[in-house]
């Protein structure tokens, strides 16, 4: 049995944030029914296309284990079908622009009337307030959530990060809200509305930077490199380059081969507890007792000198040799892995974190599998659905349309071209 077996999800999501959430629900065992505009579908199907005529990797990597129904929710018969889906489902997830669902005639009040047990989960760019009506994409959220202003180097512009903390990060937050609401429904019998704003989710992930904002009132942030460099702090949490986010100093350092390989680097942390081992490894044993070096606070104004010396050592080793030498001493280091190296790591395939998936249009591709492992709810990653692949199946098996009634619905223009599919 899967953890969410028996839970039906009406997946009204598109692009990345919402689909991340519903893909997780599908992996946990829910029956996820993705509603897509007839003949068009989720816009990502045709974005960043690498194989002409096939669904893009953007789409296939975010919509595993789902079923697809083509449905025009603005058509009268389409609204009838949507109403029946709302009656049947436990959860409705959407990430339309603000007001889009209301304009279709499906406000939260109406949805609750149709099914008081349903959980309606929404992603918007901003929570209630002056920006509530804005359309928002990933990088806007990274900027509005405080991540961009605190990422990058002090002498450079704000930076967005490659990790999709605005989209996928918000999808994760929403998913937690949904399962929490399902748990509460077990006791109350009532559904509820679950909302996650992308700005809020990014801010939640940038929590430590708000911590530092408040610490500024008590003086300079001593673990930031700029403290050791004598650069005064301003009014807001500054960009900290590659400084460690925690209380112990850390940097990204060059390794052997850095001249040719843009990823021949390691992260290196000099925690107080392993300082003496670091000194031995890099060949500076006298730093263990030398005044100005022996105690952590004394070292803070010498971090540039210390890391330059460590880098002289790391440059004589590959990033993997650094890992092999430092790990037995509990010195926290981490190789900077390229996506190429990650995609070739058989260890990640063994755990299901990476998966190879077959697809009828594009053949085999690599995807990220379920990153959350449940010991009693195994995940088998299945390919994403083709547009409208399950329209007839959902109409008949989930909603019970049959005979003339089914013909009426199919003939109404609300559900795409089913005859063409049957012929294929
Ligand atoms: C992502 C986003 C910016 C995309 O904007 P968009 O491409 O213009 O898409 P919208 O959500 O506005 O939807 C466009 C229209 O399609 C309609 N539509 C969607 N699915 C439909 C269907 N199955 N049948 C009929 N109409 C449909 C919507 O009702 C809407 O119509 P309206 O503008 O008349 O109300 C926007 O959806 C958004 O801000 N979402 C919330 C934040 C978010 O999740 N952002 C991150 C995305 S990764």
TrEMBL record:
<feature type="active site" description="Nucleophile">
    <location>
        <position position="167"/>
    </location>
</feature>
<feature type="binding site">
    <location>
        <begin position="135"/>
        <end position="138"/>
    </location>
    <ligand>
        <name>CoA</name>
    </ligand>
</feature>
<dbReference type="InterPro" id="IPR017659">
    <property type="entry name" value="Formyl_CoA_transfer"/>
</dbReference>
<comment type="similarity">
    <text>Belongs to the CoA-transferase III family. Frc subfamily.</text>
</comment>
<dbReference type="GO" id="GO:0033611">
    <property type="term" value="P:oxalate catabolic process"/>
</dbReference>
<keyword id="KW-0808">Transferase</keyword>
<dbReference type="InterPro" id="IPR050483">
    <property type="entry name" value="CoA-transferase_III_domain"/>
</dbReference>
<dbReference type="InterPro" id="IPR044855">
    <property type="entry name" value="CoA-Trfase_III_dom3_sf"/>
</dbReference>
<comment type="subunit">
    <text>Homodimer.</text>
</comment>
<comment type="pathway">
    <text>Metabolic intermediate degradation; oxalate degradation; CO(2) and formate from oxalate: step 1/2.</text>
</comment>
<comment type="function">
    <text>Involved in the catabolism of oxalate and in the adapatation to low pH via the induction of the oxalate-dependent acid tolerance response (ATR). Catalyzes the transfer of the CoA moiety from formyl-CoA to oxalate.</text>
</comment>
<dbReference type="InterPro" id="IPR023606">
    <property type="entry name" value="CoA-Trfase_III_dom_1_sf"/>
</dbReference>
<feature type="binding site">
    <location>
        <position position="103"/>
    </location>
    <ligand>
        <name>CoA</name>
    </ligand>
</feature>
<feature type="binding site">
    <location>
        <begin position="246"/>
        <end position="248"/>
    </location>
    <ligand>
        <name>substrate</name>
    </ligand>
</feature>
<feature type="binding site">
    <location>
        <begin position="16"/>
        <end position="17"/>
    </location>
    <ligand>
        <name>CoA</name>
    </ligand>
</feature>
<dbReference type="Pfam" id="PF02515">
    <property type="entry name" value="CoA_transf_3"/>
</dbReference>
<feature type="binding site">
    <location>
        <position position="37"/>
    </location>
    <ligand>
        <name>CoA</name>
    </ligand>
</feature>
<feature type="binding site">
    <location>
        <begin position="95"/>
        <end position="97"/>
    </location>
    <ligand>
        <name>CoA</name>
    </ligand>
</feature>
<dbReference type="GO" id="GO:0033608">
    <property type="term" value="F:formyl-CoA transferase activity"/>
</dbReference>
<dbReference type="InterPro" id="IPR003673">
    <property type="entry name" value="CoA-Trfase_fam_III"/>
</dbReference>
<protein>
    <recommendedName>
        <fullName>Formyl-CoA:oxalate CoA-transferase</fullName>
        <ecNumber>2.8.3.16</ecNumber>
    </recommendedName>
</protein>
């Amino acid at each position: 049995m899967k953890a969410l077996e028996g839970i039906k999800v009406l997946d009204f999501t598109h692009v990345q944030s919402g689909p991340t959430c519903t893909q997780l629900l599908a992996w946990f065992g829910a029956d996820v029914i993705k509603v897509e505009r007839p003949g068009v579908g989720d816009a990502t199907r045709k974005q960043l296309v690498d194989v002409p005529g096939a669904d893009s990797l953007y789409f296939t990597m975010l919509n595993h284990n789902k079923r697809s129904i083509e449905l025009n929710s603005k058509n009268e018969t389409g609204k009838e079908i949507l109403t029946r889906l709302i009656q049947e489902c436990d959860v409705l997830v959407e990430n339309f622009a603000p007001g889009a669902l209301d304009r279709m005639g499906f406000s939260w009040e109406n949805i609750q009337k149709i099914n008081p047990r349903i959980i309606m989960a929404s992603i918007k760019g901003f929570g209630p307030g002056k920006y509530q009506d804005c359309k928002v994409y990933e990088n806007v959220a990274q900027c509005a959530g405080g991540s961009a202003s605190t990422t990058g180097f002090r002498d450079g512009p704000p930076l967005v990060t490659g990790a999709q903390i605005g989209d996928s990060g918000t999808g994760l937050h929403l998913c937690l809200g949904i399962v929490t609401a399902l748990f509460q429904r077990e006791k109350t019998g009532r559904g509820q509305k679950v909302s996650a704003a992308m700005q809020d989710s990014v801010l939640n992930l940038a929590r430590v930077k708000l911590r530092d904002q408040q610490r500024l009132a008590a003086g300079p942030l001593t673990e930031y490199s700029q403290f050791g460099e004598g650069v005064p702090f301003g009014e807001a949490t500054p960009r900290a380059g590659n400084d460690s986010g925690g209380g112990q100093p850390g940097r990204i350092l060059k390794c052997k081969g850095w001249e040719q390989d843009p990823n021949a680097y390691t992260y290196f942390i000099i925690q107080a507890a392993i300082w003496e081992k670091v000194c031995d490894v890099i060949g500076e044993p006298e730093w263990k007792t030398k005044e100005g070096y022996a105690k952590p606070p004394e070292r803070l104004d010498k971090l540039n000198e210390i890391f330059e010396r460590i880098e002289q050592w790391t440059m004589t080793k590959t990033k993997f040799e650094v890992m092999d030498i430092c790990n037995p001493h509990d010195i926290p280091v981490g190789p900077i892995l390229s996506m190429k190296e990650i995609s070739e790591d058989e260890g990640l395939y063994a755990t299901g974190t990476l998966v190879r998936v077959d697809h009828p249009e594009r053949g085999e591709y690599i995807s990220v599998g379920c990153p959350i492992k449940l010991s009693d709810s195994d995940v088998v990653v299945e390919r994403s659905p083709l547009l409208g692949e399950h329209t007839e199946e959902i109409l008949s098996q989930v909603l019970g349309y049959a005979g003339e009634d089914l013909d009426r619905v199919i003939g109404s223009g609300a559900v795409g071209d089913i005859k063409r599919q049957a012929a294929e």
